[in-house]
Structure formats: C-alpha cells, structure tokens
From TrEMBL:
It is found in: Membrane. One of its GO terms (biological process) is polysaccharide biosynthetic process. The chain crosses the membrane at residues 12-33, 53-74, 86-107, 127-144. This is Sugar translocase. GO terms for cellular component: membrane. Keywords: Membrane, Transmembrane, Transmembrane helix. The lineage of its organism: Bacteria, Pseudomonadati, Bacteroidota, Flavobacteriia, Flavobacteriales.
Amino acid sequence: MRELLIRQKQILFFIIAGGLSAVVEIGSFKIFSMHVPHFFPREVNFHGVHYPLSNIFSTGCGIITNYFLSIWFVFERGKHSKTREFAYFIGVSFVSTLLSLGFFQIFYSFVFKDNINLICYTLSPEMISKIAAILLVSILNYSIKKKVIFNG
C-alpha cells in the first residue's frame, strides 16, 4: 500500500513538474515566436518547417526547468553519477524534442487550423499545436526517465 501511495505521489509530482515546465516552454514559445521572426523572417516558414528556432529555444527552456524540478521533487537519485544522469536526461530530452517538433509540424500543418476562443484568451493554431505536442511526448518522457535515468 505504501508503495502505491509513493508511486501515485510521484506521478502527481511529475504532472505538477511537467505542468510547470510546460508553462515555461509555452510561455517562452509565445515570446520567441513573437520576437524571433523580427530577426529571422523565415522563422514563420523555413522550408516548410514552422517556427523552428522558437520551438528549439522554448523546448530548451522547458527541458532545463524540467530537469531541476525532476531531481528536486519527483525522482530519487538513481545509480548513475550526477554527470551521467544529466547526460542521459539531455539525451532523452533531445529525442523527445525531435518527436515534439515532428508532432508540432503535423498538428500545425494538418490538424489545428483555427483559433480557439477561451473567452479571456484566444489560442492560436501555433499555441494549440505546441500544447498538444507537449502532452503527447510527456507520457513517453515519464516512462523513460523513471525506468532508465532515475531507476525507480
């Protein structure tokens, strides 16, 4: 029973840490997607890839936030050294970033075409696509980070 409670607590903390990291990632994506095109006009559509730099920069912000929240609140230290643990975390996050970028492109190009009005805020197709990609990749992230990186 205690193990079940600890596991549920860990999942809850992972969701909270992921949610906070997603807020950082989505917020920084909003900032980057508004400002980067002023410096790189092709950012909006770079050979069919929409907002590549904004996605990469914002995902990097989310990864760093998620790493620190994960080691402080979610997972116990694994059998790896801190350096190796961080390297594994970055490696998994790199693959997750590629998946997230791919899902973003699919969602933005084919799925989400219209704004969603939330009364107090309107979500653009870019933001909806980013949120959907984050949600999809987060399930994979939890499993891999728990089993491979933090060995728990």
